[in-house]
Amino acid sequence: MKLLKTEFIYELGEEGVVKFSFTAVLYTDQEKVFVTTIPRRVYDSDLQSLDLHALNGREIDRNDIYPRFDVDSFTNVSVSPRDKVYIKRPNVMMYTCEESEEDTQLWKVMREEAKVCEILRQSPHPNIAKYLGCEVKDGYIVGLCFERYSETLRERVDGCPRKVDRASCIQSVKKGIQHLHALGFCHNDISPDNVMFDGCNTPVLIDFDSCRREGEPLGSKTGTLGFSRTGIVTSEVENDIFALQKLEEYLNLINDPCGKQ
Question: Which residues contact 8 (CB under 8 A, 6 or more apart)?
């Protein structure tokens, strides 16, 4: 057996407070992959004493993780490690041991995002991440391929906010949102983590797993805490307007460790 990854999983508790839920553990046994949960924090210092044989994890079925590739609906693209490409893969750490409908819908989330991205591929915009196509293996979509960008807005703010032209950033994000709305979509998860910068320092919107046509249900993907309206269940223009306002507030409140405020 081999440990692949551990990750702390959090949930939204009472009064909107984020609290620790469990540690998800991903490991392999020969060619099979398993995931389990431990109801405490498992730190790096604990890993050597972690007995994988005693975890009794749940085997991951790839049919629950990856959608089938349809040549008439999706674009198959081949990329090499040397290409400047980011490959987005399903977060299998959310495939917990608890049997629930949400756990087995990861393939649907990925399929819906691929559908949106195929439309964006046909209608590109400089403030929308450039989608290249799907990585396909054995008839399954195992990754969504995008142009690789340098850093997120949050990373830039945390590093040196002086490098952020706040007014220009908000205007660029707004243009990206307007492009989505013109196509009939709402992003529904605009946050500092979902805005990145390209090589020309242009802000681009990323992460379209919450992007749906206006009026469609959102399912389990309902935005980022602090940047989304509470209780949202459908894709709405108001979700993006609210998030853009919160993003502007976020940028207006930051202090500049590089010497300016």
Answer: 20, 23, 24, 41
